[in-house]
Write a structure and sequence with these properties.
223 residues, alpha/beta, Glucose Oxidase, domain 1, 9-stranded mixed beta sheet, two-stranded antiparallel ribbon, 6 helices, 13 strands, 18% helix
Length: 223
């Protein structure tokens, strides 16, 4: 049986587009090969730069930091759902999720990850990437928590709607034990390949002591 690996991660580079208020990213040549015989770069980046995982501590004072997140929660079966028709500024509700998940067999639930394509990936580098993406509603987040979904990912800069200043999805998902991954890419390609079928998703973070989140190399393995 053939296996296809799809990288769902953005490039980390100087000047990359970031969620407002995050510190800018710099990849700086540090030890030139001409001088030392080898080369290294220094990385200056926010924990939530590019494709990243939110730790519960990001929104919960008593939540787990990234170095204490159980790794078994970050690997396993996943499904991708297409909500790109909600672009721009649409809302992904519980009813929308129920309809999209109804065609997935078996039932989406505990130990599954759910990836939401909002269409944001098609606008990376544009102002719209940060202010026009569809977001997950409060009742949508509550449904996923009730289903026991272990992780929710999006190709947008935030799982929350850009006009939801109180971050209702974050405040329901993370305390409910559902992790959040943001700034995914290549979800369109993934959907074309999987067509509603499950695949394996790996979303391992860096082990940042006390971290609120971490950049990740998100990888889908389709068999």
């Amino acid at each position: 049986m053939s296996t296809t690996i799809i990288d769902l991660s953005q490039d980390i580079e100087t000047g990359m587009q970031l969620f407002p208020l995050h510190s800018p990213t710099h990849v700086v040549p540090w030890m030139p090969r001409e001088q030392y015989g080898w080369a290294t770069n220094a990385l200056f980046l926010n924990e939530h730069a590019g494709t990243h995982l939110d730790a519960p501590f990001h929104f919960m004072a008593d939540g787990q930091t990234i170095d204490h997140v159980a790794l078994e929660r970050l690997t396993g079966p996943a499904v991708a759902l297409d909500f790109s028709t909600r672009w721009p500024k649409g809302t992904i509700t519980a009813a929308d999720l129920e309809e999209a998940m109804a065609v997935v067999t078996p039932h989406v639930g505990r130990e599954d990850a759910v990836l939401l394509r909002t269409g944001a990936e098609d606008h990376l580098g544009e102002p719209a990437y940060l202010d026009a993406y569809p977001g997950l509603s409060a009742d949508g987040a509550e449904l996923l928590v009730a289903r026991g979904v272990r992780l929710v990912g999006t190709d947008a800069a935030s799982i929350d709607h850009p006009e939801a200043s109180d971050f209702p999805a974050h405040h329901r998902l993370l305390p409910g034990g559902t992790f959040v991954v943001e700034n995914l890419t290549n979800l369109g390609e993934l959907l074309q390949l999987t067509r509603g079928l499950r695949f394996t998703l790996h979303t391992f973070p860096l082990r940042i002591k006390g971290g609120t989140g971490s950049p990740i190399r998100a990888v889908a393995i389709v068999s």
